Amino acid sequence: MLQASALCCVRGEREIFHDLSFSVGAGEWVHARGENGAGKTTLLKALCGLLRPSAGAVTWNGQPLGDIRDEYHRALAYLGHATALKDDMDAGENLRAACAIADAPPVRSIGEALRMLGLDPSDSAPVRTLSQGQKRRVALARLALTPANLWILDEPLAALDTGAVASVLELLDRHLGQGGSLVLTSHQAVDLSRPAREVWVGSMRENGVGESIGDGDSPRASA
């Protein structure tokens, strides 16, 4: 279980967010919401251990991230705004390189992962020739390969067409159905079969957590 406890982040003299507390366990997901620039990406980086919060703590299965860094990184798959792809490699080569870096056996074949995202495994075009949406799909195909239990995704649906969005939502649903955990940001509707816990970030509303009772819009509660 990922647990955030009384998180606070200050940048310069500006408080980005304060007193954020929530958890996400097996088969659960959190939707971090807020206006542009509210601090959602900062929150995700804190959850990944990429930056230290000004106050509060992030734990994985009850242990501080600093004490179990290697174990946590093996359990974590993070996708930020950048695709982190090698432009001179094709899609399949990028996925093979990602598997080698992860040093963990993929859960399915590279060809199957690409097809799940609507990509042709036989396409040998270098990634630099692909559209932004296609590059995003290649990056997302890495998720279809990883055995990581916790996925933290920053705007995973950005630059995707309707068909690709449906493929990604199916992938996320499958991950949750297999007992995985998910934290994401998205300005688009994320219609998954399991209800979300909403975490609101930023100054446009009080930092808070809302529990969803079903698909679509969920009730919201201040912290």
Tell me what the structure shows.
A hairpin with a 2-residue loop joins strand 4 (55-60) and strand 5. The protein is an alpha/beta fold and 223 residues long. Residues 210-223 have low confidence and may be disordered. The two termini are 21 Å apart. The protein has a single domain (2-211), classed as 3-Layer(aba) Sandwich (Rossmann fold). It has a 6-stranded mixed sheet with strand order 6-7-8-3-9-10, with helices on both faces. The longest helix has 16 residues, at 162-177. The relative contact order is 0.19. It is built from 6 helices and 10 strands, in the order βββαββαβαααβαβββ. Helices cover 27% and strands 25% of the residues. The protein has helices at 40-48, 69-75, 91-102, 110-116, 132-141, 162-177; strands at 2-11, 14-24, 29-33, 55-60, 63-64, 76-79, 150-154, 181-185, 197-200, 208-211.
Using brief descriptors, characterize the structure shown.
single chain, alpha/beta, Rossmann fold, 10 strands, 223 residues, 27% helix
